[in-house]
C-alpha cells in the first residue's frame, strides 16, 4: 500500500486544497492519503474559522482517506515547531511513503541544499551567522548571509526564504533529515492566490481571502447571502453546504472572540510574568505586563505590541501560547522524547479501514480513536500533551457556545467523523 502524507490547516478548505489532494495522489501513485491537520487553533496563533471536526469532514469528502490532529502545541507555533510536529506525526504512523506539499518554488531541488545546511549547521555556517549577528543584522538577514557563504549562487535565490510555503517546506525537509525518516518529499507549484491575498480571484482563492469575506458577513449578517455566493465559487459544493448550514450557529470564529478569555489569562499569569511561555523574551514579557491594562481585544494587543522586530503574527502566536499554556519547558521535554506520543484520529473514510489496520500494526505510538483512550497514555509527558489538546478543544468550544448561544460540546463526547 502506497500512502502519501499531507500537512494542512484547511481553514477553510477550498478548491486549491482539492487540487492539491488530487495532484498528490497522481504524482505519488498513492493508494491512500493521510492528512495531519491543525486542530482548533492555527499556525498564525488564531482560532480556526470553523471547528476541526467540520474541517476534517471537508477533507474526507474531497480526497483524504484519514485525518489526524496535529497537537495544539505545534499547530499554533512557528514554522520550525509546526514542521517538526507534523513530520513526527506522519513518521510515527509507520506507513507513510511520501510527503506532498505546495511551495512557491515548485522545485524541491532548490530547497534541499538550504534545508541540509539549516538542519546540520556546519561550522562555516555558524561562524558566518555569528559574525553577521555581531554586525547588528536581524536574524533573517544574518541567516541569509550565512547561507550565502555555504551555498554557491544563494544570493540570487535568497528571496526563496521570504515566501511562507517555501519556509514551511524547508522545515519539513529539515525535520525529515533530522529524524532520518524514509518518507520521500515531493513538492508541487502553488497555483492559488498569494498566501496573504484578500482577493476572491477567478482562480484558486486563498483561505485568507475566504476568512476575510466571511468576516464581513459576521459583522453584517444581512450580507451573508451575498458573501456566501462569492465564497461558493471558490470551494467544493459539499464544503459550501457545510459553510451555509453552520453559519451563525457553529462559525465563524475570529481572534477577537478570544478577547475576554485572553485578558483573564494574562491577568492570572501577571504575577509570574510570561517568560515561561514559548517565544516570550524578558523584553516582550515586560511589554505585555505594561500593556495589559490598555487593551481589551485580541487585535488591540497585536496592533499595540507589534514593532519593527515583532510582527503581528509573532505577537498573535505568543498570545495563543499563553492562552493554551504552551510552555518552553514542555516543548523542550517533548522534543527530547520524540515530539509525538500518540496520533489522534479526527476522521476517516470507511473504505480506509485497511489503512487503519496497517497503522495499528506498524505505528510507533498509540493511535487514539476515542478521547477516553488518552487517559491511559503512558508517561507524564504524553499525558500532559494530550491534556493540553483536550483543553484547547474545550477553550474553543466555550468560545463557540458563548458567541452563538449553543450548548457546550464536551470533547469526550465527540465522535470520529466517518464518511
Description:
With 419 residues, the protein is an alpha/beta fold. It is built from 18 helices and eight strands. It has helices spanning 15-28, 52-60, 72-75, 79-93, 108-120, 123-134, 139-150, 164-179, 207-219, 224-232, 237-246, 259-269, 282-291, 298-305, 312-324, 328-336, 353-362, 380-404; strands spanning 3-8, 32-38, 66-70, 98-103, 184-189, 343-348, 367-368, 417-418. Strands 1, 2, 3, 4, 5, 6, 7 and 8 form an eight-stranded mixed beta sheet that branches. β2 (32-38), α2 (52-60) and β3 form a beta-alpha-beta unit. α5 (108-120) crosses α8 (164-179) and α14 packs across α15. The longest helix has 25 residues, at 380-404. The protein is globular and about 55 Å long. The model is unreliable at 193-197 (pLDDT under 50).
Order of helices and strands: EHEHEHHEHHHHEHHHHHHHHEHEHE
Q: Which percent range fits the helix content?
A: 40-55%
Number of strands: 8
Which class of secondary structure composition applies to the elements? alpha/beta
Number of helical segments? 18
Shape, per Cα inertia axes: globular
Straight-line N-to-C gap: 21 Å
- Assess the beta-strand content as a share of residues: 5-15%
- What is the radius of gyration computed over CA atoms, rounded to a whole number of angstroms? 21 Å
Unreliably modeled segments: 193-197
Q: Major sheet: size, sense and barrel closure?
A: 8 strands, mixed
If you average the pLDDT, what whole number results?
A: 93
Amino acid at each position: 500500500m502506497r500512502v502519501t502524507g499531507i500537512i494542512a490547516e484547511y481553514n477553510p478548505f477550498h478548491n486549491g486544497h482539492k487540487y492539491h489532494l488530487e495532484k498528490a495522489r497522481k504524482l505519488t501513485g498513492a493508494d491512500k492519503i493521510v492528512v495531519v491537520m491543525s486542530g482548533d487553533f492555527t499556525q498564525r496563533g488564531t482560532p480556526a474559522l470553523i471547528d476541526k471536526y467540520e474541517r476534517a469532514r471537508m477533507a474526507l469528502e474531497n480526497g483524504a482517506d484519514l485525518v489526524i490532529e496535529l497537537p495544539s502545541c505545534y499547530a499554533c507555533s512557528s514554522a520550525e515547531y509546526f514542521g517538526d510536529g507534523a513530520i513526527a506525526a506522519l513518521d510515527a504512523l509507520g506507513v507513510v511513503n511520501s510527503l506532498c506539499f505546495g511551495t512557491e518554488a515548485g522545485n524541491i531541488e532548490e530547497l534541499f541544499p538550504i534545508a541540509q545546511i539549516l538542519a546540520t549547521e556546519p561550522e562555516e555556517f555558524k561562524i558566518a551567522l555569528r559574525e553577521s549577528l555581531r554586525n547588528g543584522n536581524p536574524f533573517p538577514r544574518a541567516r541569509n548571509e550565512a547561507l550565502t557563504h555555504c551555498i554557491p549562487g544563494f544570493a540570487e535565490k535568497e528571496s526563496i526564504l521570504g515566501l511562507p510555503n517555501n519556509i514551511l517546506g524547508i522545515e519539513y525537509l529539515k525535520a525529515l533529515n533530522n529524524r532520518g525518516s524514509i518518507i520521500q518529499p515531493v513538492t508541487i507549484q502553488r497555483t492559488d492566490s498569494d498566501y496573504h491575498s484578500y482577493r476572491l480571484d477567478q482562480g484558486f482563492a486563498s483561505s485568507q481571502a475566504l476568512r476575510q469575506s466571511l468576516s464581513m458577513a459576521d459583522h453584517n449578517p444581512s450580507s451573508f447571502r451575498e458573501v456566501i455566493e462569492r465564497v461558493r465559487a471558490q470551494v467544493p459544493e459539499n464544503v459550501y453546504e457545510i459553510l451555509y448550514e453552520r453559519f451563525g450557529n457553529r462559525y465563524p470564529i475570529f481572534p477577537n472572540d478570544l478577547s475576554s478569555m485572553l485578558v483573564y489569562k494574562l491577568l492570572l499569569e501577571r504575577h509570574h510574568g510570561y517568560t515561561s511561555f514559548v517565544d516570550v523574551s524578558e523584553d516582550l514579557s515586560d511589554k505585555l505586563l505594561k500593556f495589559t491594562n490598555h487593551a481589551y481585544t485580541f487585535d488591540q494587543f497585536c496592533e499595540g505590541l507589534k514593532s519593527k522586530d515583532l510582527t503581528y503574527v509573532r505577537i498573535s502566536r505568543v498570545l495563543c501560547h499563553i492562552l493554551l499554556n504552551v510552555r518552553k519547558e514542555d516543548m523542550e521535554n517533548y522534543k527530547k522524547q520524540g515530539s509525538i506520543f500518540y496520533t489522534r484520529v479526527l476522521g476517516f473514510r470507511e473504505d480506509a479501514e485497511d489503512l487503519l489496520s496497517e497503522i495499528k500494526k506498524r505505528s510507533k505510538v498509540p493511535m487514539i480513536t476515542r478521547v477516553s483512550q488518552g487517559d491511559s497514555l503512558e508517561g507524564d509527558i504524553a499525558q500532559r500533551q494530550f491534556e493540553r489538546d483536550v483543553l484547547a478543544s474545550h477553550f474553543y468550544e466555550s468560545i463557540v457556545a458563548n458567541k452563538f448561544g449553543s450548548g457546550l460540546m464536551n470533547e469526550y463526547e465527540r465522535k470520529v467523523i466517518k464518511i
